[in-house]
Design goal:
This protein has 207 residues and is mainly α. It has ten helices and no strands. Helix 2 packs across helix 3 and helix 4 packs antiparallel against helix 5. The longest helix is centred in the first third of the chain and has 23 residues.
Length: 207
């Protein structure tokens, strides 16, 4: 049952992210995509770490805004060091984070049409080919993707997507797949256990 719930949630989230990103401007698409990743990273850390003494998640002494590991870059690095991220996903998350920063803060006319942005999206995509190939059967349920890729079925999923989709759609698919992959990690995590209190030694009584 837990396995079924996991795959249902992964598939549902993947399509929810894809649909929501399509509604956004280019800037909004990139910012929202990384917000989903950051939120799932936080959820994974909350599940793995001992609970906060604070009642409110916003007041969490570690993960709350402005707290020691409240920023995205620190969370990404901490997850790698804790062994709950693979190195390739760690790299992809940082690439997504830098794209988010550029789209959110640069005053220049930044766009998916820019060659530098295209190259960075392709780099992320190529870094996540294993995840994308694993989710290929779910992806081709999307009518638009199925129509764009129907002539290339002899290739693997990642190769088909790269050849058929433009930069923005490639970004949306890769982002959605990565959020879904982070959910898969959440299901594999078990909370750390609090250390046992040492039992005091009983000194022998001497008359």
């Amino acid at each position: 049952m837990a396995t079924q719930d996991k795959y249902e949630r992964m598939a549902e989230t993947m399509w929810k992210v894809t649909i929501e990103l399509r509604k956004e401007s280019e800037r909004g698409c990139v910012v929202l995509a990384f917000a989903w990743m950051d939120e799932q990273l936080t959820a994974n850390l909350r599940k793995y770490l001992l609970p906060s003494a604070q009642q409110s998640e916003k007041a969490d002494e570690l993960l709350g805004a402005g707290r020691p590991i409240g920023d995205a870059a620190t969370k990404i690095d901490l997850c790698l060091r804790l062994g709950i991220l693979q190195p390739n996903t760690h790299k992809s998350l940082h690439m997504f984070r830098r794209l988010r920063n550029d789209f959110a803060h640069l005053a220049s006319n930044i766009s998916f049409e820019n060659q530098s942005i295209h190259d960075r999206v392709v780099s992320i995509f190529e870094n996540e080919q294993t995840v994308l190939n694993g989710m290929w059967q779910a992806m081709i349920k999307d009518e638009e993707v199925r129509q764009l890729t129907e002539l290339d079925r002899g290739k693997n999923g990642a190769q088909i997507l790269k050849a058929a989709l433009g930069t923005r759609k490639l970004f949306e698919m890769t982002a959605a797949a990565l959020v879904s992959g982070l959910i898969s990690i959440e299901y594999a995590l078990f909370p750390v256990k609090a250390p046992l209190r040492p039992t005091p030694e009983v000194q022998p009584f001497h008359r």
